[in-house]
Amino acid sequence: MKKFFAFLLAFSVCFLALGTYGFESPANCTDEDCKEHSHSGMTLLAADEDGEAVYLYADVESDYNESVQTMTVRITIDSDVAKIRGGQIQIKTEGYALKEPSISSFSQLFDESAKDYATITSKVNGTTVLISIPNSATDSRDADGYIVLTYPVDITYLDMSWERTPNLSITGAAYRQNASSFSFDSFSTSHTLYICNHGSTEWRVRDEATCTEPGSRELVCTVCGYVLKEEMIFPTDHDWDYTHVTNYGGPAKQPTCTESGYGGVKCKVCGTISYMSDIPALGHSWGDRYSIGGVYYQECTRCGEVQKADNQCPHDPDLYEQVMVIEASTCETHGSALFECPTCHEREVRELPYAHVFGNWSIVKAPTCTETGLKKHTCSVCGATETEVIEANGHDFGEWTVTKEPTCVSTGTRRRICSVCGETETQTIEVSGHSWGVWRTIREATCTTEGIQVQECTVCGETNTRALSKTGHTFGVWTMTTHPTCTATGTETHSCTVCGYSETRTAAIDPDAHVFGDWEVVSAKTCISDGVKERTCTLCGHVEKAEDPCSGHTFGEPVVDGKVTTKTCSVCGYSEATKTVSGGVEKTLTDVNGSLLVTGTLAGTKLDFGIGIMPIDRFEGYRDSIQQYFSGTVAMGYDLTFLSDGTDVAFADGMELTLKLDPSLEDYDVDFAIVSGGSISTLGDYSRKGRDITIDGADLAGADMIFVVRGEENSPNIVVPIIIAVCTLAIAGVAVYFIMSKNKNKGNSF
User: Fold this and answer.
1) Class in CATH terms, 559-713
2) Of 701, 693, 648, nearest in space to 674 by CA
3) Which pLDDT tens digit goes with each residue over 193-246?
4) H or E stretch covering 13
5) Residue 102: what are its φ and ψ, rounded to 5°?
6) Domain coordinates of the chain in residue numbers?
7) Beta partners for 219?
8) Is 711 exposed, middle or buried (0-12, 13-18, 19+ CB in 10 A)?
C-alpha cells in the first residue's frame, strides 16, 4: 500500500509541474512565421501553386519642372517564390492630361520576352496597356522585379481654374502552371491623380517659434495644397526682466540707470530663470519735460537725476512779442526794444526800424457827405511831409417816415432826409403777412381716411386748410393660428385694436419643429460608459441622437479575505479586488470579458475598467482595414476603457490584461490587432492558457480597441504528452524504489 501511495505522490508532483505544457498551442509566432499576417498597402493578385499568397501593388509618383511633368507607375510583386508563367496585367488611364506611356523596365519575375506581348491602345480620353505573359516564360525568383510605365503629362491641359482628375486602374489575373483551366482571384485597384504645376505658392507658419522651442513653416501650393518645402523657424530671444534681479545661481547686484549688475533674471514670456554675470545698465527713464527760466529739463523716474532736455523751445522769432521800448527810433537813427518768447518767456533786445518825428495833422481839404478829404503832417527833424486821405462823412439821415402802410398782401413805403445836404432815401416795407389763429379740427382722421384742420387770419379773415394724416392701424401682437412643422408652413394673424381689421401671413417651415417618436437605444449604456439613444421624426424622418449618461457602478458590501478586499457591482458584475502589498496596494479589475492587474501608484486611485464586445456596425467599419494585415479571419472586436478618478489613462508597463476569448475561438490560433488613435498595429508577444489570453500593459499603450483574428485550428500535440507521461513514470519508479529500499533497511534492522 505504501508503494501505491508513493507512486501517486510522485505522479501528482510531476503532473502539477508539467501537466499543462503542450496542451495549448501558442498563438504568437516569429516574424518569419507571421509573414503572411502583414501585407499593408498591397492588393491580392493570386496564389502560387504551393498556396502561398502573391501580392501586387502599384506606387504612383510624379515629377515636374517648369515645362515637363511626368507620372510614373511602378508595379511590384512581393513574392520571391511565385512561379507565374502565364496571365495578364492591364493598366488603364482616363483623362486628357496623360499622354501615351513608355515601358522602360520589366520585372525579372517575367521573362524579358514578355515585353513583346505588351500592347498600348490609345483612346481619345486615355490609354490602355495590356501585358500578356506566356506560360513558357522563364521562371525567375527575383523579389525586386517590377514593371515601370512612364506617362508624360500634357501641360497644355494644366488649367488651374479647375483640376482634372485622371483615374488609374490596374487589373490582372494569373494561372498556375500545368493547370491553365483554373483561374486565380483577379484584383482591381484605382488611384486618383491630381495634376498641378504648383505655380502659386505661399509660406505658411505651422508652429510659431517661442523663446524655448523652434517653430516651423511650409511652402504650400495655394491651388492643390501640396507642401513643396518645409523649414525650421529658429527660437526667439528671451525677453529678460532686468528690473528684478535675484540671487538665483549666485550673488546678486541690481543694475542701476548707469551701472551694470549681476544675478538671476527671469524671462517675461516663458518664465525661464538664468544667471547673468554682466547685466547691462538699465538706462534713464525720463519723465515729462518742465521749464525753468525758458530752459526745459527732465527728471529720471528711477534714480532722480535731472538733465537739460534734448528738445528745447523752438523760439520762433515771428511769434516774439514786444515788451517795452528801450530807445525810440528817429528818421536818422535806429531805436531798440525788449521782445519775449510767449512759450518759454526767454527775452532778447532787438533793433527798431527808422521813424520820423511828425507833428500834428493839418486839413488840406475837408470831406463832404459823398466826397473824400485830405490831411498832411511834417517831420520836425528833416522836413519830410506825409499825406493821408480822409474818408467821406456819409449822409446824416433823420428818422424814417412811413408814406404808405403795408397790408397782409401788399407792400408799403417809407422815406428819410439827410440833415446836411437834403438828400432823400426811400425804402419798400414788406407785406405784413397774415396773422393766423390756432388750427381747428373740423374732421378727425381715422385708420384709413384723412382728417381736416382750418385756421383764420385775425386781420383780414382769410382761411387756410390742411389735411391730417391717416392714423394707420394699431395692430396687436401676431397670434399663431396654425403652427408650422418641419415639413409644412403655418399661419399667424394680428388685428387692429381700433377698427378690428385683421391681417394674416405665412409662418415659415420650422426645421426644428419635429414630431418625435419614442427614444430607442442604439448603444446601451454600461456602468462606466455612456450609451447612445435616438428618436425619429414621424414627419420628415429626421433622426436625433442623444447621450445616455452612465450611472456608475453600484457596489455591494466589500468582502475581506486576509489582505484582499473585493467589491462587486450588483448591476454588471464588475469586481475590484484590492490586495495590500509591500509599498502599497495592487488591484485586479474584473469585467465580463476579462480582467486587469494594476500595480504601482496608479493602483491607489479610484479605478474603472471595462472590456466590451464591439457593436456590429463599428466592428464592420474596422474589419476590412484590419483584414489586410492578416491571413486569418477577423472574428471579434473589443472596446477598451480604463479610467482613474474618472479620467482616461493609458495602459502601461507593470499592468497585465487578461482577455477571456469567446468559446468558439478556444481551438484556434489567434492573432491580435491594436487600434490606437486611428492607427493599427499588430500585437507581438502574449501568453495563452485555454480561452485566457494575457497581454503585457506596455503592448497596449494608447489602445482604444483590440481585434481578435482567428487563425488555423489547433492540431493535437501528442509528442509532449508522451514525453510528460514517460517522465512521470520514471519519477514515480524512482520514488517507489527509494521507499522500498527504506522499508527493506528497516526490516534488516530488526
Assistant:
1) mainly beta
2) 701
3) 545 556 678 999 999 999 888 999 999 877 667 777 899 999 888 888 888 898
4) helix 2-18
5) -115, 145
6) 41-192, 201-233, 240-279, 358-400, 513-552, 559-713
7) 203, 229
8) buried
